């Protein structure tokens, strides 16, 4: 491949062909003629030194290297788009950018809820929120791709400061019409024989819940295994089983799903991660304070 970086017009044309399945629809989508789109794609393929597309029964099919390249191209263009937005925000007098990451148990409730009051104080601040796991957050903080991360403890890494936000207890999620929904509290004996939705990766939550059942000789029947808390909650909403999860993940429950306290008590601590070597940052301080206030109010600890 030549040293020159492909221009954005070539990348947009190739991505349009990839997503829309042909030159005609791609040309209509991006407002160019079909020959122009074909020339842009051909020029890009020439620079890359490999084909992005092949024809199969008159249909354009993306090649394996083409798919790999276009995935990266899409991510790169997305980054350029965000960069333009941030530059425009700074040009309009905004005072900076705050980049927040949260694990799935916090990304669909606490993280955006804390932004409500925060944005009232900093309405002109550009904010980006992403959902990634704890390991990815540590890496993103180290590479300065995010400013603050929200995680469940334990969490630590060299060069990171861990700031406690709140402690919360595990709860049992179940459909509102389930016979056990009338209970004020649920424990392993009450849940014997029920089907459960659980996370399919090793998690502290799962090991602690399993231990609570193991202590009295009960084995949970797992009907569905998922890889994220929001999926777990959706499966409960569809009646596929019950779930035991973080209290902090219940900010936004689908209609028809209720949470009941689980005993024995399983407590979790939640924290904000930031870099130790960062200079004082009023934005991060203010956001962490709002996350702490929201979390404690939700957990009943205020």
Which series of helices and strands comes N to C? HHHEEHEHHEHEEEHEHEEEH
Q: What is the CATH topology of the largest domain?
A: D-Maltodextrin-Binding Protein, domain 2
Number of domains: 3
Number of helices: 10
Quaternary class: single chain
Radius of gyration: 24 Å
Q: N- to C-terminal separation? A: 60 Å
Look at the structure and name the CATH superfamily of the largest domain: Periplasmic binding protein-like II
Q: What is the typical, i.e. mean, pLDDT?
A: 86
How much helix, percentage-wise, in residues? 40-55%
Class based on secondary structure composition and strand pairing? alpha/beta
In the CATH hierarchy, the architecture of the largest domain is 3-Layer(aba) Sandwich
The major beta sheet can be summarized as: 7 strands, mixed
Identify the overall geometry: globular
How many strand segments? Answer: 11
Residue fraction in strands? 15-25%
- Poorly predicted parts: none
CATH class of the largest domain: Alpha Beta
Describe the structure.
With 302 residues, the chain is of the alpha/beta class. It folds into 3 domains: 8-89, Winged helix-like DNA-binding domain superfamily/Winged helix DNA-binding domain (Arc Repressor Mutant, subunit A); 91-165 and 269-299, Periplasmic binding protein-like II (D-Maltodextrin-Binding Protein, domain 2), CATH 3.40.190; 167-267, D-Maltodextrin-Binding Protein, domain 2 (3-Layer(aba) Sandwich). 42% of the residues lie in helices and 23% in strands. It contains 10 helices and 11 strands. Strands 3, 4, 5, 6, 9, 10 and 11 form a 7-stranded mixed β-sheet that branches. It has a two-stranded antiparallel sheet with strand order 1-2. A two-stranded parallel sheet has the order 7-8. Helix 1 packs across helix 3 (34-48). It is globular, with a radius of gyration of 24 Å. The termini are far apart. 29% of the residues are buried. The model has no long low-confidence stretch (mean pLDDT 86).
């Amino acid at each position: 491949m030549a040293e020159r970086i492909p221009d954005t017009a070539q990348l947009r044309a190739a991505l349009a062909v990839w997503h829309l399945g042909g030159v005609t629809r791609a040309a209509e989508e991006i407002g160019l003629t079909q020959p122009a789109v074909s020339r842009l794609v051909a020029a890009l393929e020439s620079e890359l030194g490999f084909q992005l597309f092949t024809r199969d029964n008159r249909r354009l099919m993306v090649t394996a290297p083409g798919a790999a390249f276009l995935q990266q191209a899409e991510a790169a263009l997305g980054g350029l788009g965000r960069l333009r937005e941030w530059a425009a925000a700074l040009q309009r007098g905004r005072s900076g950018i705050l980049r927040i990451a949260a694990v799935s148990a916090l990304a669909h409730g606490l993280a955006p809820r804390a932004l409500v009051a925060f944005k009232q104080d900093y309405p002109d601040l550009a904010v980006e929120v992403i959902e990634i796991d704890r390991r990815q957050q540590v890496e993103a903080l180290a590479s300065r791709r995010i400013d603050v991360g929200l995680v469940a403890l334990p969490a630590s890494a060299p060069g990171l400061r861990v700031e406690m936000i709140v402690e919360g207890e595990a709860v049992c999620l179940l459909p509102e019409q389930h016979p056990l929904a009338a209970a004020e509290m649920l424990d392993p004996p009450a849940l014997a024989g029920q089907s459960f939705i659980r996370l399919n990766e090793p998690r502290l939550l799962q090991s602690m819940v399993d231990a609570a059942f193991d202590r009295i000789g009960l084995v949970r029947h797992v009907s569905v295994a998922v890889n994220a808390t929001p999926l777990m909650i959706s499966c409960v909403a569809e009646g596929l089983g019950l779930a035991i999860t973080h209290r902090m993940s219940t900010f936004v429950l689908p209609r028809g799903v209720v949470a009941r306290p689980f005993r024995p008590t399983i407590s979790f601590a939640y924290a904000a991660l930031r870099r130790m070597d960062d200079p004082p940052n009023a934005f991060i301080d203010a956001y962490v304070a709002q996350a702490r206030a929201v979390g404690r109010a939700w957990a009943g600890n205020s």
